[in-house]
Specification:
The protein is elongated, with a radius of gyration of 35 Å. The relative contact order is 0.09. By secondary structure, the chain is α/β, with parallel strands linked by helices. The longest helix has 54 residues. Strands 6-7-8-3-9-10 form a 6-stranded mixed β-sheet, with helices on both faces. The chain binds adenosine-5'-triphosphate (ATP). The site of adenosine-5'-triphosphate has 11 residues, from helix 13. The site of adenosine-5'-triphosphate (ATP) has 11 residues, from helix 13.
Length: 611
């Protein structure tokens, strides 16, 4: 076995090697705090259980004395049996209570984590891997259960028995106790030092499980692309490599905890043999009686048993702290709501914001807006994030249709993301109904805006679930009407299921055009005064394009509409077209004005055979 100094160095090295955030024990307390009453009860049970256990050796000592002195045992035996049964019953019930509370801790950690996860700033999702986040909710939270089931309360009861046994042993024979403590103390020190290494290795193991989940998620979400590219074998190999990483880390944890178990075993044996040897000698010497030696040995077992529990508790608490680090990492990121906490909104509710939007002449205004996406972690500190919008200004009159056009990567989708406040501009002001959007709560702002993204995300589930996402109270009639408005009745009639028809994972059971129109229908059900529409880049065929145009014309009625158009034909009759190039506005006007004034627009129009 390594020396304590070596072990300490080993533990320090482990901490330094790992970039994983380590949770402190105090961070675990809020999770336990919720179950204060049950835990207190469990501790009380532990105390009673410990009392029942500690009384047993004393009674055994009494029994031996009475037998050696030829006295009657009387009710002593029955009391002893009663104590054994009581201790067993208490231990069973306590076990159930702890399992139940353990599940409670897992549940509350999942509740906390999910509530935070879905409210994180959008930029967090740009850099994090979905599967890893899912794994934190599934696997890491499960690890917290062990803290209670194999850990803490057992340790409390154990500690009481431990202390009680030591006191009794000190009274019986301080010399024997001194020897025992020496052996046990060495074991405790070794285990404590090893346990730090367990915490780090366990966090690394969880990290690997996260990577594994992320790789599986990546391959499954793009399974068609992977299959079509004949890349299945390579993806399988990558995933197996990640699984191997998790396996190797698991083995590392197993190796370190495997050291802990024999240490506990050896400590027990050495202590027992020492007590037996030296004790026998002391009995022969007349220093203690046989009854006292037997009682001492029983107390020794009583002291060592909780020690085993404590070692187990140290291992599982350390593993749980590794997992808790990964949970806390997410919980520590301020949510959008927290970022807005200090905000005193100019208008404090959605209805007020709605009134402002309905009354203002200008629905949306960009004033010299500059913006860069946050840098990714791997980028060096000196590296500048490229500026995506470089002083963009334009106004959108209420009730009109504005089209954003320009080459790919010009920054069109970014503009819509900024209106939704997924990100905030580096400088410049964006106004909604004349109010700086940073002076509004994001929920109130978003309640006025319908947003149909470029890839028209469709959620797995039914047509109805997709439609009512933003309008949970919408009736079936309203759903059917809005599907009619976007020319989707065909999908409704395709099966006998109507609105309950499934759309498949990410909407694979729908065509690209149908997905786009379903997304528009969803945005419309919430009846927002402003609609942002990022047209699909997928080349829709003529018939689909016609359906889309009709749908847009229907929804444009009495709404402010901003459309990112990849086909100019959909937007030539807009009141205003804003032409963007490399993050700047190079022209604003109607189609006929722009054809004359803006070469880039003329080029685009020529390309698409409109002039
Ligand atoms: P398209 O017509 O192809 O949809 P676009 O004009 O909508 O293009 P944007 O999606 O706004 O262009 O992207 C503008 C630039 O910002 C691109 O260079 C893109 O690579 C970059 N970009 C977009 N999203 C992010 C992001 N989340 N993080 C970092 N850079 C991004």
């Amino acid at each position: 076995m390594s020396s304590p100094r070596e072990l300490r160095r080993y533990a320090r090295k482990a901490n330094a090697e790992s970039g994983i955030p380590k949770a402190k024990f105090s961070q675990l307390l809020p999770y336990l705090g919720e179950h204060r009453a049950v835990l207190t009860f469990a501790v009380v049970l532990s105390v009673v259980g410990a009392g029942a256990s500690l009384a047993q050796p004393l009674l055994v000592g009494q029994v031996i004395t009475r037998v050696t002195e030829g006295e009657l045992l009387g009710s002593l035996v029955w009391i002893l049996v009663g104590l054994v049964v009581l201790a067993a019953l208490i231990s069973g019930y306590q076990h159930y209570l702890l399992q139940r509370t353990g599940e409670g801790v897992v549940f509350s950690s999942r509740r906390r984590l999910v509530s935070r996860l879905l409210r994180l700033p959008i930029s967090e999702f740009d850099t994090r891997r979905t599967g890893d986040l899912v794994s934190r909710v599934g696997a890491d939270t499960t690890m917290l259960r062990a803290v209670l089931t194999q850990g803490l309360v057992d340790a409390v009861g154990g500690a009481l028995t431990f202390v009680g046994a030591i006191i009794a042993m000190a009274i019986l024979d301080p010399v024997l106790l001194g020897l025992t403590v020496l052996v046990v103390f060495t074991a405790i020190t070794t285990v404590t030092l090893l346990s730090r290494r367990i915490r780090v290795a366990s966090a690394q193991a969880q990290e690997k499980v996260g990577e594994l989940a992320a790789s599986v998620e990546r391959a499954i979400s793009a399974v068609r692309t992977v299959r079509a590219a004949n890349a299945t074998d390579r993806e399988v190999d990558t995933i197996i490599e990640d699984a191997r990483g998790a396996y190797l880390m698991g083995i590392k944890v197993a190796k370190i905890s495997a050291l802990v178990v024999p240490i506990a075993g050896i400590a027990m044996q050495v202590a027992f043999l020492t007590v037996l040897g030296v004790g026998g000698y002391r009995v022969a010497d007349g220093a203690i009686t046989v009854a006292n030696l037997v009682t001492f040995i029983l107390f020794l077992f009583m002291m060592i048993m909780p020690l085993g529990q404590a070692f187990g508790a140290i291992t599982s608490v350390n593993s749980a702290l590794g997992a808790l680090g990964r949970i806390q990492e997410i919980i520590a990121i301020p949510s959008e709501v927290e970022l807005d906490r200090d905000l005193t909104p100019l208008i404090a509710d959605a209805a007020g914001v709605g009134d402002a939007v309905r009354q203002a002449d200008v629905a949306i205004e960009f004033d010299d807006v500059r913006f860069s996406y946050p840098k990714v972690e791997q980028q060096s500190a000196e590296e500048e994030a490229p500026e995506i919008l470089r002083g963009v200004s334009f106004r959108v009159e209420r009730g009109t249709r504005t089209a954003l056009v320009g080459p790919s990567g010009a920054g069109k989708s970014t503009i819509l993301g900024l209106i939704e406040r997924f990100y905030d501009p580096t400088s410049g002001i964006i106004k909604l109904g004349g109010i700086d959007i940073r002076a509004l709560h994001r929920d109130d702002l978003r309640s006025q805006i319908g947003y149909v993204e470029q890839d028209a995300p469709v959620l797995a589930g039914s047509l109805r679930e997709n439609l009512t996402l933003g309008a949970p109270d919408a009736t079936d009639e309203e759903c059917i009407q809005v599907l009619k408005d976007v020319n989707m009745t065909k999908v409704l009639k395709r099966t006998s299921l109507g609105l309950d028809a499934p759309v498949g994972e990410e909407g694979v059971m729908l065509s690209g055009g149908e997905r786009q129109r379903l997304a528009i229908a969803r945005a419309l059900l919430a009846a927002p005064p402003i609609l942002l529409l990022d047209e699909s880049t997928a080349s829709l065929d003529g018939a689909n394009e016609q359906l889309m145009r009709e749908a847009i014309d229907k929804v444009a009625h009495e709404r402010t509409l901003i459309i990112i158009a990849h086909r100019l034909s959909t937007v030539v009759d807009s009141e205003q077209i804003v032409v963007l190039d490399q993050g700047t506005v190079v022209g604003t006007g109607t189609h006929s004005q722009l054809v004359k004034s803006t070469p880039l627009y003329k080029e685009l129009a020529k390309h698409q055979l409109l002039v």
